[in-house]
Every structure is written in structure tokens, then in C-alpha cells.
Amino acid sequence: MPETFTYTFDTPIYKGKTSFSTGLYIDGKWVDGSKKTTIDVINPTNGKIITKISQATSEDVDLAVVAAQKAFDTVWGLNTPGTKRGALLNKLGDLMQEHFDELAALEALDNGKTFGWAQDVDVTDSIATIKYYAGWADKIQGKTIETTQHKLTYTRHEPIGVVGQIIPWNFPLMMMAWKLGPALATGNCIVLKPSEFTPLTAIRMSELIHQAGFPPGVVNILAGYGGTAGAAIAEHPHIDKVAFTGSTLVGRKIMEASARTNLKNVTLELGGKSPNIIFDDADIDQAVKFTSHGIFWNHGQACCAGSRIFVHAKVYDEFLVKFTEKAKSLKIGDPFGIGTYQGPQVSQIQFDRIMGYIDSGKEQGATVHLGGERHGEEGYFIKPTIFTDVKPDMKIVQEEIFGPVGVVIKFDNDEDVLRQANDTMYGLAAAVFSKNIDRALQVAHKLKAGTAWVNCINQLHPQVPFGGFKQSGIGRELGEYALENYTAVKAVHVNFSLNVE
Amino acid sequence: MTSVQVTIAATGKVLNVPTGLFINNEFVSSVDSQDKIECIDPATENAICSVTAGSATDIDLAVRAARNAFKTSWGKNVTGFERSRLLNKLADLMERDAQDLAELESLNNGKPVKIARDFDIGDSVACLRYYAGFADKIVGQTIEIDNKTKVAFTKHDPIGVCGQIIPWNYPIQMWAWKVAPALACGCTIVMKPSEFTPLTALKLSELIVEAGFPPGVVNTIPSLGSVGGAALSAHLDVDKIAFTGSTVTGRKILEAAAKSNLKKVSLELGGKSPQLVFESADLEEASKWAALGILYNTGQDCTAGSRVYVQDTVYDAFLEKLVEKAKALTISHAFDEKSGGGPVVSKVQYDKIWSYIDSGKQEGAKCILGGVKRSGKGYYVDPTSVRLLLIYALTAYAMTVFTEIRPDMKIVKDEIFGPVLSVGRFATEDEGIELANNTSYGLGAGLHSNDASQCMRVSQALEAGTVWVNQYNLLYNNVPFGGKKQSGIGRELGSHALDEYTSVKAIHWNYGEKLDWPL
Predict the structure, then answer these.
(1) In a domain, B510, yes or no
(2) CATH of residue A122
(3) Which one, out of A67, A183, B95, B240, has a CA that is 20 to 30 A from the CA of A77?
(4) Residue B247 is part of a domain; what is its CATH number?
(5) Where are the beta strands (DSSP E) in B327-443?
(6) Are A252 and A383 members of one domain?
(7) What is the pLDDT of residues B379-431, one digit of tens each?
(8) What is the per-residue pLDDT across A414-424, written as a single tens digit (0 to 9) for each?
(9) What is the pLDDT of residue B345?
(10) Cα(A121)–Cα(B381) distance, rounded to whole angstroms?
(11) Smallest CA–CA separation between B272 and chain A, in Å?
């Protein structure tokens, strides 16, 4: 029997309790992993173990797939009409709202983001996303198409069946909502693997999903390692679609696995090295605030982080002074501390990686304008860092760091900055700051990115699609567009009156 | 203050019913009129209560309130997400109060409580939730013109202040069909419920407040059609009028709109909907659907299948089954869970239906069922059984059936809006289709056949906004509904209803073209 994890929060800004089974959620039950092994979940604030959770391996994935397929064939898929699927999603949203602070606190504990950010963004947007897709559930429509007078030709947008979903550790709950919403609205059954670094809110959600009334087998939640459970999902012959959010490196592996096995449909949300361009006619004060949000939000652990900051020569000095001041004002510390903006990075591995990039920046001759070092003695805290005097071929300019490290690049030519901005294998997002809307739109339309922000950055809405060009991904999440990821189009040709010889 | 206590006789339950005009989230008196509307219980002919009758000036005040809300707290000032949340909340409240609302609806309209609760209100709650789901999904298009210098896109703006005039046959459901898409799109509303059945619209106004809609977003003005309805249709500051009711009144509304400010008009009007029974049909099933078609809601349904044409070869067999089905339906008191229908809504309707029955006989049609008035009045309960003599219940049987009809007879041409069925016959498919389409109406049509090719051909050929194949009368919130020909303009339900409450604006944004001048 899996253990129950109980935790009491006693902090200056939140007091409360959480308690839930740490088992895998398969076929409506909480169970040990087949190998009876566990994963230690670490608190990034101090490096200590929060709890153990059950570990899923490939045998567990097999069990989940069987349960999911059975549910799909009997009680889910098109056996449950859209109005009912929508009602269950709405109920889930209501339950999340009931447990709002508890979810936010759990997220902050597990991931290291502040309780305040978890409340204002993560939990709020997760609920909004679930409710948004609840509204779509009874509106999945095909078309009737004119061909000849002998025929009725139409399309059906059918659920795919059993889908695998692998989500990352940077926005654990939100990434779960982005995946569950469209998949369930369209009638699919799910095998979802949360990150081994941040499984707690996903496991807590399994109880809310159960309480909402989703039949057993419709949603299965299996925490495990990417190399084992994740790979098992990617390779599974009876999973017909896999959706992955994470690094480009792992995204390739998943696509390869699909190619090697059953050619399952693959959608990917991968990395980015998103450019943020500040023109000389920008509102500098606003640009500074947004730029800070662009790179320091979530400790830089955002796929769409505006990590390459291009500033026009005419306003470079003013911008840099103000930006540095803003960065200095960001308080690092305990996610449950009063006034904290930035908590620790999520894990030792990430910490080491980011510090490695900072070192490489120094080695390759960039200037550490701010930060560039650890904060404190305990946990994975890194100070907001700004590099200047960089060259395009430096690692810190080319590669995704995924930490609170921004590089600032001076430019004076519109054409050239556009070229530099697009000179990356990534294409997730981009931002442009200019009060001259003509200039802003011309640049925005030429940026090779799935999201272009004009005079803002890092703003997402459940109704608006999000996804990458180039090696930042395949497919779009959010909005109506996400529904395509989870439906299979069947064309039906009904001949009424054509007889052949 | 402006409310009464209404007692449900059968259970003794007391309901508090507001009787004032609902403007800016408050119930108020008329500013310049003492007139009242008396609400009658059609099962007993007793008065239930009186409500304030709104005047043209009251309508004007309501429109002002709606306009103000549209400019400040609603319209483009509220997100789709918030509109969705409020509509879902309203649905929850309606569901919570379903029993009370059903009893009030039954009292005022006559339909059985079970049907009001499980069908009318059940569907209405689902309708609110369906449009709640659309509220944050009102999208326009971005359109390619010239990538270097221009971006063109459309916005689907809320139309503005909408006048909504609803009928007495499904008071709550017609309220939901109008309110839900209008609010989802961001419009504000002045609702004029039928003067016969205003009570549930007033009670629902309380839920509008409880759900949290800002003042002025929904306003409810009970009023006579010739007063309030006319005032709304002619009002210079109402952007759109949506009406469900008779074709006669629909014309007046369209005319008033044309003469005033060319407000947008959508109309759901009458019908004389045909059902065709072909020889390959499952006659047992077809007879049930045919019975449903004319008996549901005591025939007071715009899509009532009031003409049935049966193929010669199965005519006698079908007719026998149809009569059997008619006799099987119980018309009983409102709280009888087995009751399949109630009285018609008013004396006016009662007299009108009887005059058609008389005309049918006079013009030579053969009445094979019904056609004889019940005697007596009042609600009579004896110790051993419930025996109900409904003043407006027409005959000893649920419906009246005429055969040997001709196309020129009034009972065949006019909408009767009661449980009176005309049954004809045809030989060939083409003849059947021609008979079916021979009407100025085009709301619904049904066909019963087991020949798939025939189903396809006939459903394509029938001139109606809704065609039922091997079925009749059943509607779903996500499937559009409306009339061809003189049955209406526009569509309700489904995604199409959104078109009725949005206005498309195209924005051409030049960000790079300099104009060569002079030309």
C-alpha cells in the first residue's frame, strides 16, 4: 500500500495542511509501483527530502494503458457525450478552486516558486484552462462538405484513444492543466507522467480528478523517470499519441521512439532562446519592467523566457541602468517568505547546469554586469544575473540556460537585429518594444516565433495558442488549436444513388 | 414590497413571486401607469396574482439601464471568462431552484410539473451552460492582404442592447434560449415576457441578481405586446430585437424595425410542419413520433407536426396505430407524474382552437377522434381518485384528428397551435414532398422511412429549417434551429446563435503604406 504524505504548512504567509496518497493513480486506484520502488522528492529550498512517492516503470505504463483502453472502449471516448465531459471538467475546476491555496502551497514547496506567484499565476491559470476546455467539450464539430448530388460527405472529429502526456517541472500544475483540458474535452483517455522532480501537485490532482467523477482509467497519473516511464510511454505500441513538454534534447528522443515503434502522433513543446528587442522609441520604464519579467519570472525557468535582450544603442545606457536596478530589487529567498520574488532553482542538476553556463560566460569573455553567483549556502538559489559585452557565438548567447541569466546585446540597425533575433535554431517566442506601432508590427511579423509579444512579454491566455517554430516544437497548445492535437479526423462518404457497372 | 406570496394548491408550498418591473437589478413600479396584468391558472381559471404592466416609458427606462450597463460594466468592459463564470453560476442557481420554478411554470402555463422540471428547465440549464462555454471563444479572423504594410482582421463585437420578446408556450426555455447567447456575446437585454406567462421570467430575474450580473445587464418588463413589445421594436436605442411568436406579430416587429432605426431582427415564427410516413417506415415508431409531434406541450409548439401525410399502401395500418397512441396519453393534473399534457394556456387560445375544429367540420373534413368539448369546469378531487376537468382541456381525448382533408382547408393551411392533427395521403414520393412543402411556413418537417436513399432525397427536398429523420420534435442545444420561408429569420441554438448577437467589424490597419497624392 502506498504511504500517505501529510504536511503542515506553518509560514508567515500560509498556514494549512495537505495529506494524500503517494501512490500511482491507475484505473481509479492508488497503488505501489510494480517494482515497489520509490522516488525521493526534494525541497529545493534546502535540499532535503520532502517525501517519497511511488515510482512507475514500464510495467506500470502497461497496466495504465490497459485501463485507459478499457475505459475508452466502454465509458469514455464518444460513449460519454460532450456535455457530460464538459460537466466533469467544470467540476474539476471547481474542486481546484476549493483547494486553491493548498495547491499553491504544494507547488511552492515542491518547485521552489513563491507561494504568491503560484497563487496569482499557476493555480489561477490552471483553473481557467480547465474551465476553458470544459466549454469546448460539447462543441467538437466536423463539417458536411458538398461533393456530388449522389453523396453525403462529412467529417467526424473523433478522440484519438489512449494518449501519453509527459510534463515538465517548471510549471507542474499548469502544464498538467494544459494537457488534461483539451485531451479530456475531446474524449481521450490519458497516461500522464509528471516530472520526477515535481510530482506532488499532479498526485494531489489525482484525488480531485477522482472526486470530480471521471470514470476509472480515464486519467492515470504515473510519476517516474524520463528514461524509464517516459521512454515506455514514447515507445508504447498501444498509445496512439504522445504530447511532451520539456527540453529539445528529450523531444528528439520521443520523436525517434515514435518513429521506431508505432508512428504515434507527436506534439512537442520544447526549448527557446527568445529574443526581446527594445527599440529607441520604446517606453523604457515599461520595457524594463517587462524585460525583468521576461527573464526572471519563475527564476528564468520558462521555455519562452526572453533571454536574449537586444537594446538599441541610443537607449542602451539608460536601459541597462534601470534594468540592473530592477534586477537588484528582486528579493531572493524562502518561497513562503514575505516579499520574496524569487525562490531556488528546481534541483541540484539545474543549479549545476546554470552555474556551468555562468562560468562559460565568464570564460568566453563576457562581462558579469550583475550577479553571476550563488545566493546563500543552502538550497539551489542563484542571483539574478546579467551579462553584457557578449558575442553571438558564446554559449550563453546560443544555448538555453533555463535560469535567471539574461544577456544584453547592443544594436543600432533594425534589419540586423531582426537577423540576429532569428539566428537561432529555436523559435518559441519573441518580444518587441516600441511606441511606433508600425515599426513594432513590421518586426513582429518577421520574427520567426510562435508567439510575438508587442510591448509586453510572457503573457498567456487559455484562449490564445502557444507553440514553437523550428526546433522549439511541433503543434500548438491552448486555444481552439489544441483540440486538433487530440482529435483524429475521419471522412465519411455515404453513397446513396450512384450505382456502378 | 413589489412581490406576492403564491400558494401551490396541490402541495401547500408558498412561493414568493416578484411582481414589479425589473430594472437595474431592482424591482420597481411603473413610472406612469397603474395598469396590471392578471395571471391566470389555465387548469382552474383562477387568478394567480397580478403583476405590474410596463408602459412605453418603462421600456425606455429599461433601455437606458441596458445601454448604461453596456457602456460601463458589460459589453467590451467584461471579459469572456467573466461572462462564462456568471452564466455558469446562473445555471447552477436555476438547477438549485428547479422544483420551485417548475411548479410556478406549471401554475402559469398549465404544463405538467415533471415535464417543466425535467425537460423545460433541464434543457434550459444545459442551454445556459452551453453558451457559458462559448463566452470566451468569440473569435474573428485575421486576413492576409499585403504582408509588408497591412494587417486586416475582424472583431465580433457584441451588438449592444437587445430587446427580447418571448412567448407563453415554453416561458422558461424561451427565456434561456434568448438570454444565454446574448449574454455570452456581451450584449445587454430588455426582456419582455409574454403577458400570459410573466411569472417565471420575474422569478428568474432574482437569480440574475444572485448570480452576480451587474445592474442593467438584464432587465425584465412584463407588458402587453402592443405596448411593451411595440415600444421595444420601435425604440431608437435598441440595437437588435429577437422575437419568438406568431408570424402576424413577427411582421409588425420587422415593420417597426424598418421604420425606426433599422435594428437587426431575428424571428422565430409559426409553422405548419408536415410529417411524411413512407411505406418502408416502422409504423409503430412513426405513430409514436407523430403523436409526440402534435401532442407535446398540448400542440402549443411552433414545430408541431400538425400535418401527417401517409403513403397509400400503409395508410389504414398507420392511422389505426396513431389513434391508439392518442388514446394512450393521459391528460391529468399538473402534479401527476404520468400526465403527458395539460390544458391550453388561455381562453383566447381555447376559443381559437375550437373555431378551427368547427371550421374543419364545416369544410368537410372527417373528424375521426376527439372534436367534442368536455363539459364542466374547475378542479375536482374525489376520495378515490383524482378526476380532473380542465376548463381549457379540449376533449375527452388528448387530440382531435381530421382525415379526408384538402389543401385549401383552413385546418390544413393555418397554424392552429393546439392538439389538432390533419392526416392526408399520397401515392408517390414526389407527391408526398409536394404536399409537405405546400405551405408558406418552413420551420420543421419529419420523415419516416427505412430506405436510406429515400431518407437522403426527401430530407434534402423538404423546405424546413429542421428536418427530422425517423424522429420528431427533439432539439439539442448545440444544433441550430430556425425557419425557412415565413417561419422566421435567423437561427437559434448551436454556434449559429452567436451570429445573432455579434456584429462583425473589419479593421484595416496600415502600418507601412504611404498614400500617393494626388491620385
Answers:
(1) no
(2) 3.40.605.10
(3) B95
(4) 3.40.605.10
(5) 366-369, 379-381, 386-388, 400-403, 420-426
(6) no
(7) 322 222 223 334 445 555 568 899 999 999 999 999 999 999 999 999 999 99
(8) 999 999 999 99
(9) 83
(10) 63
(11) 28
pLDDT in tens, A15-62: 999 999 999 999 999 999 999 999 999 999 999 999 999 999 999 999
The answer to whether position B479 is within a domain reads: no
Arithmetic mean of pLDDT, B363-379: 73
In a mutational test of the A interface, the residue from B85, B88, B89 whose CB has the highest number of chain A CBs within 10 Å is B88
Specify the DSSP class assigned to residue B61. H
Q: Within this chain, do residues B78 and B168 fall inside the same structural domain, yes or no?
A: yes
- B415 and B326 part of one domain: yes
Tell me if A501 is assigned to some domain: no
- The chain A residue lying nearest B91, using CA atoms, is A87
Decide if B477 is inside a domain: no
* CA A315 to the chain's CA centroid: 34
| Cα–Cα dist A267/A450, whole Å | 14
In a domain, B511, yes or no: no
Residue in chain B lying closest to A84 (CA): B126
C-alpha grid cell, residue A436 = 511606433
Domain residue limits at A284:
275-461
Active site residues of A: 269
Looking at the fold, whether B51 and B139 belong to one and the same domain comes out as yes
SS (H, E, C) B179-247: HHHHHHHCCEEEEECCCCCCHHHHHHHHHHHHHCCCCCCEEECCCCHHHHHHHHHHCCCCCEEEEECCH
Domain that holds residue B8: 3-269+487-505
Tens of pLDDT along B441-487?
A: 999 999 999 999 999 999 999 999 999 999 999 999 999 999 999 99
Q: What is the pLDDT of residues B143-172, one digit of tens each?
A: 988 877 888 999 999 999 999 999 999 999
B128, closest residue in chain A (CA to CA): A135
What is the tally of structural domains in chain B?
Answer: 2
Claim to verify: residue B231 and residue B291 sit in the same structural domain:
no
| Subunit contact B511:A480, Cβ cutoff 8 A | no
